[in-house]
Amino acid sequence: MLVPPLVLLHDYPQQTNTFFYTEGEELLYEVSWSGIRIGTIQLKTLPVLELTETRKHRAVAYINSRSGLPFVDVHLVAYTEMDSTFNSLGSYSYEKQDEGWQKIQYRYNLLEKKIIIEESSQETLESSPRHFAVYDTLQITRIPIQDGISLVFLGRYLSQVQDSISYPTVANEKIGETMFHPFRLRSKVSIKAWEKPINVVELSGKMKLEGIFGLTGDFKGWFSNDAAAIPITAEMKVILGSVKIELKQWNRKGWEPPE
């Protein structure tokens, strides 16, 4: 699937917390509600952009509800660019509508303390936009910024430290707050895709905004207790209630879930 490049206005200072980040990693998750499968999330890392003064880490997520569900119909492609500490450098998403795809792009202008939101529509993901407009401008009070996809990678990093932290987060054309509490509680979890219990660490937090599927409020995630910090399973609150997200397939060279 075509993933167009972002043109960004500013870069954050770079650091080197990239021990778990691997280009070409693919993770597939099943999303369920009250035991009912409602969709999948596929997360891929893309080749790092090597620029003159910075490295940009990139990821894309494909979020799809299961066909035939009476209460939800979501088809979304979300893309982010991040610095090496997994702060967002900008993002955009395509959402399937009856007439085609709607694109929302977030361009950061930190010098003027604002995020410019651009909206466009197109018939297919590969076709040219047929409509374009500056939709809104959000004011920034703190940096760095997180978006929906960069939060996953930030969570992987934070699962390996013990500092509680809060980040401004942009989603659904609004800015809210995401708090993390990585206490490194160790346990074991079982998933259908692996025959043995997996050694994990727990990370909890709270989102003070509404994301995809109406994601908001308290959440918990369990990450592999190794250098890869793969998200294994998570529990999150959405409009429907509480959903479970479970790792179903993975493609990461040399990785197996730790016992």
What structural class should be given to the helix and strand makeup? mainly beta
* Model regions low in confidence, pLDDT < 50 over at least 5 residues: 1-17
Compute the number of helices. Answer: 1
The proportion of residues forming helix, as a percent range, comes to under 10%
> What fraction of the residues are assigned to beta strands by DSSP?
over 45%
Rg on CA atoms, Å: 18 Å
Number of strands: 15
Largest sheet: 15 strands, mixed
Shape: globular
Strand order in the sheet with the most strands = 8-7-6-5-4-3-2-1-15-14-13-12-11-10-9
Order of helices and strands: EEEEEEEEEHEEEEEE
Distance between the termini: 35 Å
- How many separate domains make up the residues? 1
What is the secondary structure topology, with strand pairs?
Blueprint: E1 26-33, E2 36-50, E3 55-65, E4 75-82, E5 88-97, E6 100-109, E7 114-122, E8 131-139, E9 146-147, H1 150-158, E10 165-171, E11 174-189, E12 198-207, E13 217-224, E14 231-238, E15 241-251
Parallel strand pairs: 9-10
Antiparallel strand pairs: 1-2, 1-15, 2-3, 3-4, 4-5, 5-6, 6-7, 7-8, 10-11, 11-12, 12-13, 13-14, 14-15
